[in-house]
Amino acid sequence: MTPDPNSRPRLAPGCRLGENNNQRVLLMPERALRLNGPSLEIVERCDGKHTVGQIVADLQKIYSKAASEKVEQDILGYLALLHDQRALDFDL
Amino acid sequence: MTFTLPNPLALIAELTHRCPLHCVYCSNPLEMQSRANELPTEVWSRVFKEAAEAGVLQADFTGGEPLARTDIVDLIRAARAAGLYVNLITSGLPMDEAKLAALVEAGLDHIQLSFQGTRENTANEISGTKSHAHKLRVLEWVKRHRIALTLNFVIHRRNIDQLEEMVGLAESSSATRIEFANVQYYGWAFANRENLLPTRQQVNDSVEVIKREQERLQGKIRIEFVVPDYYAKYPKPCMGGWGRKLLLITPSGDALPCHAAQVIPGLLFENVKDRSLREIWEHSAAFQKFRGEDWMQEPCRTCDRREQDFGGCRCQALLLAGDASATDPVCSLSPLRPKIDVILNEMSTAPPGQVVLKSAWLYRPNPL
Predict the structure, then answer these.
(1) Residue of B nearest to A88 (CA)
(2) Separation of alpha carbons B344 and B320, rounded Å
(3) What pLDDT sits at residue B318?
(4) Which residues share a beta bridge with A11?
(5) How many domains does chain A have?
(6) Tens of pLDDT along B331-357?
(7) Mean pLDDT calculated for residue range B132-156
(8) Is B206 in the A-facing interface, judged by CB distances under 8 Å?
């Protein structure tokens, strides 16, 4: 799937941000993902309030040295991956 | 090659061996712990704290039936307070709606509800209890309380042809995940192996069904499939490698590298009443025994796959090869693989729908 830029991603039931020994993690049923840098910036914004478009714009600002198209593609890819893992739902 | 010790990621907390079900493939050991030997709330609470400090992210509350513990709400609260993600693996039998609400309020993250099938008569036969109808009620409560849900089906010869019905049950529930776990043959399941092993045709058909359903439900329900390793070409990386990712605490506090480790003779298990979890993880002789590669025999020792599957399962090596250090005999590279093929050929000549007399099952009893 390709996330709709106007949709608002939020963590799916049973998924939440956690922390262990100063490492932020995305906790999910039977699995966990370590979050660093951009992945953390993205997941922190999956709160049902930010739209996909806003997340892209925010990260393009934070990572302004990177090509903005590349940042957008990476974010869309990452959101789709989390969706396939059932870690994200998208509200319209 | 030197072995760098990783942190444990998950703690399997076998809170009790007591259970209202008597499943013929139960993963509990043949010799179960009595209620009198169970760890008290305070010790579990300390273990959760020590686990989080050692790097553990998730606690799997299991049993027996974890809800048989009268302090289950306090245990969930303690594990959450320690910073762990709390997963409850339950039959749902001792659940009512008020109990569920209390578990959710205490911070439970996720429920894994076990089903023995989708058809009342076979499900009840496998569990040795009238249990199926109540589980369906639990599904409704879980939906109402919006708690994350996985449906777990243990798969064997008698229900492997019903995977689509099981997916249907999950679709009618609020589950976002299905776990199809083929029976692994240790303990009770090993004793009932003749009646549980599917045929090759059944396994091949089931793989096709799974592929199709995974595709159809992508983004809606995540379907995990644990292969029946007797039919695999290579062994499973059991527990993600011995003492690499997981540790299991028995109801009485023994720390094990896996569910079945007590079948291996000569292993000495430390108890959480005597030592901290980190000490046990780092120094327990039982955990050290099969870490790294020095213990491996041929063909594992020089095999390219040794860092992928770690030689397979040590308990299976013991059960089938009589030597816990041997290559897991389900591996096609094992010199003992023909032994498995003989067993499978016998299975495939019997009709899959064959009626098994109830007296043929060895049911697990309930400890005192």
Answers:
(1) B219
(2) 14
(3) 95
(4) A88
(5) 1
(6) 999 999 999 999 898 877 766 555 454
(7) 96
(8) no
Answer whether B83 sits within 8 Å of A14, measured CB to CB: no
Do A29 and B9 count as a contact with CB atoms less than 8 A apart? no
- The answer to whether residue A25 sits within a structural domain is yes
A2 part of contact set with chain B, CB < 8 Å: no
Q: In this structure, what CATH number is given to the domain that contains residue A58?
A: 1.10.10.1150
Residue A76 lies in a domain: yes
B168-218 residue pLDDT tens: 999 999 999 999 999 999 889 998 998 899 999 999 999 999 999 999 999
B316: pLDDT confidence band, cut at 50, 70 and 90?
very high
Strand, coil or helix: A85: coil
Residue B184 and residue B263 in contact, taking contact as beta carbons nearer than 8 Å: no
Residue B103, SS3 per DSSP: helix
Question: In the 3-class helix/strand/coil scheme, how is B113-180 assigned residue by residue?
Answer: EEECCCCHHHHHHHHCCCCHHHHHHHHHHHHHCCCEEEEEEEECCCCHHHHHHHHHHHHHCCCCEEEE
Q: Is residue A26 part of a domain?
A: yes
Query: Measured between alpha carbons, how far is A86 from B212 in angstroms, rounded to an integer?
Result: 18
Q: Is residue A53 part of a domain?
A: yes
Cβ of A12 and B176 within 8 Å? yes
* Local structure of residue B150 (DSSP, 8 states): E
pLDDT tier for residue B358 given thresholds of 50, 70 and 90: very low
Q: What is the mean pLDDT of chain B?
A: 93
DSSP secondary structure code for residue B356 in this structure: P
- CA distances, B113 to each of A25, B48, B55, B138, B149 (Å): 25, 23, 27, 9, 7
For A15, the domain range is 8-86
Residues B154, B135: Cα–Cα separation, whole Å: 15
Hey, of B57, B145, B174, which one would you mutate to test binding to chain A, going by the most A CBs within 10 A of its CB? B57
What kind and span of H or E run contains B114? strand B110-115
Those of residues 64-83 in B touching chain A at CB distance below 8 A are: 83
Chain A residues whose beta carbon lies within 8 Å of the beta carbon of residue B218: 84
Q: What is the DSSP string of B300-331?
A: GGG-TTHHHHTTS-HHHHHHHHS-TTSPPTTS
CB B200 within 8 A of CB B231: yes
Distance between start and end Cα atoms, chain A: 15
Q: Encoding tokens for residue B364?
A: 């697990």
* Backbone region of residue B335 per phi and psi (left: phi > 0; alpha: psi in -120 to 50; beta: other values): alpha
Per-residue confidence of chain A (92 residues) as pLDDT tens digits? 889 999 999 999 999 999 998 999 999 999 999 999 999 999 999 999 999 999 999 999 999 999 999 999 999 999 999 999 899 999 98
pLDDT at B355: 46
